[in-house]
Amino acid sequence: MSELITEIFPVNREALPPLAGYLLDLTTDDDPARIGGRLAYELRRRTGGHWFWSRPSRHLVGDQLYTVEQLKQLCRDLWSAPNGVFGGLRTIQLDEQWQAGPGEQADYVALGLADELAEELKQALQPFHEELPPALEIWRLYHLRGWLVQGEPAISLSVSSQPVLKQNLRSFCQSFAWQTLAELEEHLRDLRVKAKDGDLCGSIVRVTGQLATERQRLLALATRESSRRRLEQAQDEEAVVLVETASGKGYEYPLSGLRIVVQPGHYKRLGLDGCRVQSHLHLAPAQRAAMVRSLAQPLQKRRLLKSRAYSTQRAPRLFQRGADLGFVPRLRVGQNHIIEGENGLIADLEQYGFYRPTPQLACKAALRIGLILAGDLPQAHLKAAAHTLKEAFQKFRATVQFSLKRLPHNSREALEQVIATLEKERAVDALLAFLPDREAQPLQREEASRKPWTLYHQFKAITVGNDIPSQVVLFSTLKGLDFAAANIALGLLSKMGGIPYVLAEPLPYADVIVGIDIARRLKTTLPGSVNLTAQTRIFQSDGQLLQYRIADAIIDGETIPTEVLQQLFPQTLFAGKRVLIQRDGPYRGREKQDLQEWAQRIGATFLLVEVIKQGAPRLYGFQPASGRAAATRAERVAAAVARSGSYRPSPSSQQLEDITLPPKGSAMLLSDYEALLVSTLPPSSAATPEPLHIRSEPPFSIREALHSVLALTLLHAGSLRPPRLPISIHYSDELGGLALVGIRPKSAEGTRPFWL
């Protein structure tokens, strides 16, 4: 059995200076964290000290002491800042009773020292950058984050890959024809870019003008000398674009001050080979671990790290494997047959059938499925695809008849006409649409309000809105249909009401399982208010879908109205039940309190779990070197030292040969109610799985929370490959984006999984 090792390192408290905490008195309703973060940045710039905003303690934390008079003068200086950023800041006061805890100590290293460490950490990753001739560079970026590990301060050192075009945005704009700024904007809108000076990254929203008219204004706003020089040297005709960051703030840049960060949806637009790019973005465990080791060295030199990374060798009690959590992959299919493991599902379904067959098959000899083709596809390819799909449905004991219709042109009107014809002439049970890849970019929730609809969204709006089971198949998928056909058939049969499998043993600690996702979007017509769409997917304890529910509201702040909670958790369904609620992301505002108050009112027990998808450091498998392997490696190092006086592996060989993939179900326990979990493995060992960050609300134990997540990854009926997320919240981002723009079923509740 392999050992486990992490990217998390214990912090050496003895190397840290005393820290002071300051309270902010605000006259406005501004988010204290937003003002505190800006204030920390301003103080780092003005004083050279190390400052950060502590969210848990709601303090401005730094390693410098200020007198009362100095703080008053600081406020006076800040009030004159551009744009009135600190206009709502009344006072800054030293909190003499405050003491830095382990959380603040961890954040001091990760946040407070970030600027001071930045150059060394960038240099540590420089050897791992790659060039993809002729046009692309792959940059390796570092990420520091503070953690608490069983109450002790720790930091994680993580790496991500960022593909960037070599040429700047101005040079890129010379590669295509445009006459007006409006035409240029059409080419550039939604491209992701990063500043050549600094770390700003965001998406282009619009073209605001040219430097001939905007130069003086931008020079007055520029804070970096390098930015000012660039503005002064650029030509008058150079265009200026507005870049929107993840926080929603906009910044203006000349084209020459930006570089394009390549996004997966833009490969074709930028003339890049997507498969080639993707292969260089994924990092195998040995590659990634070598980069983390390189990042750790500058911190180790400063004695900021107490020891090496946490591992099963150093802290075995912190780690669990799937079997330790009671997780055994067992599913129940047709004829009450139980299958072990996660492989061979197709053969078992072929032999024993669905746990609950698709209802339409009980009264029909064959299912009628309409095929809609958008764009050009050779007749031979279309015929081969239909044959492959028929065979896939047959494996699941479903005979199908296809009726093909071609779209005369790609529009909603054409779709509506073709779908109406298929329903009238053939009374189809479901629809399959073959679409070009460019017509099928899904809407993420953060893009829902500004991204134009593609044919995919039009198709989904019509079919989901009219409760027609449907599936989209991209042209690129048709090239590998032999591998995808079973997933397509499985997903469509499940959308029609079939249940291929359930858990062999129901979860013993819950009567009902609920996945909840709450999508929010600022409402432009009522400043300060938010459009909220909440969705729940409700399952029996063995994973059978009971129903979904959708509720909308316009709210101020974070609180979910009581009437929305009552819609999502009706008393008739939940009273007296043990209800496991898995939230996509952290609970916000009063969500936890509101849920528990409602549970108390209806006599239920709500077991709250947060499933956080992003930001978790990696876990690795680790095979300790055998005696001879270790000796061989030592001999190589000794020979290198003898030749050059030092040992520095080349980037291509700078890998840790004993680092491997962690087993599925590997977990690191950060506390009794918080953990990192490897919920599934990538299809290839050339990538490293990204764990989920799981938190449970006391008294529900973290081990049961981890078990529930692992169990529900087995039940995705839209794919034979277990997903990373449990089925309760799988596809939440896509569903949230669709719901916010009105793509949803007719009824606010239903029993068929339209999202698969």
Automatic annotation (TrEMBL):
SUPFAM superfamilies: Ribonuclease H-like. Residues 430-744 form the Piwi domain. Pfam families: Piwi. Coiled coil: none annotated. InterPro entries: Piwi, RNaseH-like_sf, RNaseH_sf. This is Protein argonaute. One of its GO terms (molecular function) is nucleic acid binding. Belongs to the argonaute family. Long pAgo subfamily.
